[in-house]
Amino acid sequence: MAKQLMRLDKLLGNMGFGTRSEIKKAVKQGKVTIDGTVAKDSGLQVDPARHKVEFEGTPVVYKSEIYLLLNKPQGVISATEDTRDQTVIDLLKEEDKLLQPFPVGRLDKDTEGLLLLTNDGQLAHELLSPRKHVNKTYEALVRGAVNEEDRTQFASGVELDDGYMTMPAELVIHNVKEAGGDEVHSFISLTIQEGKFHQVKRMFEAVGKKVLKLRRVAMGPLLLDESLALGEYRELTVDELAALRAHRGSKQIPAKGGQLNEL
Ligand code: URA
Fold first, then answer.
1. Is 225 considered catalytic here?
2. Residues 61-103: tens digit of each pLDDT
3. In a mutational test of the pocket of ligand 1, which residue from 199, 204, 211 has the highest number of ligand atoms less than 8 Å from its CB?
4. If you measure from the C-alpha of residue 111 to the centroid of ligand 1, how many angstroms do you get, rounded to a whole number?
5. How far is CA 60 from the centre of its chain?
6. Which neighbouring-strand residues pair with 210?
7. Which of 32, 53, 197, 231 is 20 to 30 A from 3, comparing alpha carbons?
């Protein structure tokens, strides 16, 4: 294994043991050991994979990557910083910000649900790559009676307001109900395999309907953890991470009419 040298104060800082000056002080006080020997200098180079670093006798377990599953609430933006709005990073505990996770893709400010945060640029890139067709499933409350015709249209692709033709998407209509006055509301799930700006809202606009509420419940093999309240998050489990890594793009949603093409 190649050596991964890093400064002792950086290693301890990344793992939440204090600021650089606090760590310097702790090292001076003899609180930090490397392979059982008291460290004399916070600027020492260590290899986290090989050296056993302890802080006041507690082993420092080093990790360089972080993977968080957030149930994003409305009113928070999918960015790392903003001068006006609260960001998804603002929802994290200080120790979870240290490794500088960022959101993998975006949910609109008023969209809730599953958002992956990581500092693993390679994985993020693969999940977002248009060529990988990673399925994203949303649940939505829609004003209007969503019908079979919409389902067929979405299955073959709809033209958005800018002329873009969407890839085939899978629409499941759960229920259509009177909602008072003249209004009818539909509760649906929609699985799309790309991530154009406001895509779900614009797909429904294309068929004359309006999304009132939107929530993402799945991305590739990752499912929203319903035990997380809005604004709560947790680390991915080992199995979830393995499934994401193994995921080489979802099975594509076949275009309706595909059988005709074969004739
Ligand atoms: N589609 C939308 O319209 N909004 C989102 O936040 C995600 C998908």
1. no
2. 888 899 999 999 999 999 999 999 999 999 999 889 989 999 9
3. 199
4. 7
5. 27
6. 143
7. 32
